[in-house]
Design brief:
Blueprint (H helix, E strand, L loop, with lengths): L5 E5 L3 H12 L8 E9 L4 H14 L5 E5 L5 E6 L5 E6 L6 H17 L10 E9 L2 E9 L7 H14 L9 H9 L3 H12 L21 E6 L2 H14 L3 H17 L3 E8 L18 E8 L6 H15 L7 H8 L7 E5 L7 E5 L2 E5 L10 E7 L5 E7 L6 H18 L6 H6 L3 H10 L12 H11 L4 E5 L2 E4 H10 L1 H7 L1
Parallel strand pairs: 5-6, 9-11, 11-14
Antiparallel strand pairs: 1-4, 2-7, 2-13, 3-4, 6-7, 8-15, 9-10, 12-13, 14-15, 16-17
Helix pairs in contact: 2-4, 6-10, 8-9, 8-11
């Protein structure tokens, strides 16, 4: 076998470093950072021409010809090779049973591609499977590694492949290397100082899952729902009225959910940022891994109105925008344990992968991709052009059951309903439980009595104290508290309960 010649050696972007660590940590299990998208191809197809178009686009972008290696010093680098053609495979399922049987067979082939790990040292980290479903009907399965392609880049690639297939000329390429050079010009000391200031006083991690050093990599499962159209419309109107972003609203809602899950009123979680600096020429057309994960801190003071909370969160994000290029490890090292979290919020604000491209008589339709992360809980918010908002909660099944994940999404929707009223206080939002949650909590109290008049968790507990103060309310490995004792703790720690209620 002829080995491709090395063209260049690049450093890694911040998130590439983190992903490479997680992808290499357990090379025997699944790699959660392998992603997959499919293209539905309708019409006469020239398979050889399509293959050549993909090879031309990979040759055009050095970032797609990167393999990842470690120097003797332990530093990871990406090695760009000159001739790295994506693996191409074709399968013909036409005439092999009913349409449903063919569809299931295609899904099995795609799953097999998804489960096959890449050798991260060998470029390109991209492979293609063309499946013929029927005459003039194909599906192209595109399996890639997140190390080389972010969500913004994939529509760019699809557009270029379609253009090359059609015989069109492409504009000059802007290389990912220009972004890596931009990173090297930033004032890291000033950025670290900004993150230290933002996270000052956050002394403890915000964790919702038990620590398990022996936990191995696992592929999360997903629960998907759509916000009711009336709620999505109300939130959009709230944003227009007060000059807010929908991303800020979801950050506030997720913070309130985390407050319930973690028992804290000062919470930190991760969010994914686009990472494409506006002052870098041509950045919107660059292909590579730009996104980054950074902390978001939310101080849930009970007396604040919803509008004040939202404005505070948005102001924080704007102030930190110039510092969001720093790697999460650097930020956490500088800011301490308060910057540690185990949940992630992904707000998809890049051009959608779904849509149609026309290449002569061939119609190409891109479907939503399959992407996950390694966190115990990852909330993905995907607004679509028609105004709907799709929510996906990825959860590690060994930590959170599907029922629990569904309940968390339901809780999030209820929080969003409360946030649609900008004048309500954060304390009222945090303490108001959904009707079905109140019913579950009442049953949980132990006597089957449903307190229909209770409006908050605090009132439910107070009622239980009056009926059965000696009943066990909280238990752990080393002991327990009765309802009476718990209410005594409340008397000595009024701030916590006041903010909760």
């Amino acid at each position: 076998m002829v080995r491709s010649r090395m063209e260049d050696v690049w450093p890694l972007s911040p998130l590439q470093e983190g992903m490479l660590f997680h992808a290499s940590f357990d090379d025997g299990g699944p790699d959660v950072y392998q992603s997959q998208r499919t293209l539905d191809l309708d019409g006469p197809l020239d398979a050889a021409r399509l293959r050549a178009a993909w090879e031309a686009v990979v040759a055009r972008h050095a970032s797609l010809r990167a393999g990842f290696r470690w120097r003797g010093s332990g530093q990871a680098v990406q090695v760009i090779v000159g001739d790295a053609r994506p693996r191409w495979r074709e399968e013909d399922l036409s005439g092999r049973g009913s349409a449903d049987q063919v569809a299931r067979a295609a899904e099995e082939l795609a799953a097999g591609e998804r489960e096959q790990r890449f050798d991260l040292t060998r470029a390109p980290l991209l492979r293609l499977l063309l499946i013929k479903l029927a005459e003039n009907r194909h599906v192209l399965v595109v399996t890639s590694h997140h190390l080389i392609i972010d969500g913004w880049s994939m529509p760019l690639i699809f557009n270029e492949v379609t253009a090359v297939y059609s015989g069109a000329e492409l504009p000059p390429e802007h290389s990912f290397r220009e972004y890596l050079a931009w990173l090297g010009r930033q004032d890291r000391a000033a950025s670290l100082a900004a993150w230290r200031a933002e996270l000052a006083g956050a002394e403890e991690p915000t964790l919702v899952a038990p620590a398990d050093p022996a936990r191995v990599a696992a592929v999360p499962e997903s629960v998907i729902t759509e916000l009711p159209a009336t709620l999505a419309k109300s939130l959009a109107e709230l944003c227009r009225t007060f000059d807010l972003t929908l991303s800020t609203v979801f950050q506030a809602a997720w913070a309130l959910v985390l407050a319930r899950l973690s028992g804290r009123t000062d919470v930190v979680f991760g969010t994914t940022v686009a990472g494409r600096p506006a002052d870098l020429p041509g950045v919107e057309r660059m292909v590579g891994m730009f996104i980054n994960t950074v902390p978001v801190r939310a101080r849930l003071e009970g007396g604040l109105t919803v509008l004040e909370l939202l404005k505070n969160l948005q102001k924080q994000q704007v102030a930190l925008m110039d510092h969001q290029y720093l790697g999460l490890t650097e930020i956490q090292k500088a800011a301490g344990q308060g910057a540690v979290f185990d949940t992630l919020l992904v707000y998809e604000n890049y051009p959608h992968t779904s849509g149609e491209f026309v290449a002569g008589s061939l119609t190409v339709r891109a479907n939503p991709g399959l992407e996950v992360a390694h966190y115990p809980l990852t909330l993905v918010v995907a607004p679509v052009e028609t105004g709907e908002v799709v929510l996906k909660l990825d959860h590690l099944p060994e930590m959170f059951s599907r029922e629990t994940a569904t309940a968390v999404l339901g809780r999030l929707a209820h929080m969003l309903e409360q946030l649609a009223d900008p004048g309500i206080t954060v304390g009222a939002v945090g303490g108001v439980a959904a009707p079905e949650e109140l019913e579950r909590l009442s049953r949980w109290a132990g006597d089957g009595t449903v307190e229909t008049g209770a409006a908050s968790v605090v009132e439910l507990v107070e009622g239980r104290v009056g009926r059965a103060p000696g009943a066990v309310a909280v238990s752990w490995g080393g002991g327990s508290l009765s309802y009476g004792e718990l209410w005594g703790v409340r008397a000595g720690w009024p701030g916590c309960w006041r903010r909760a209620g």
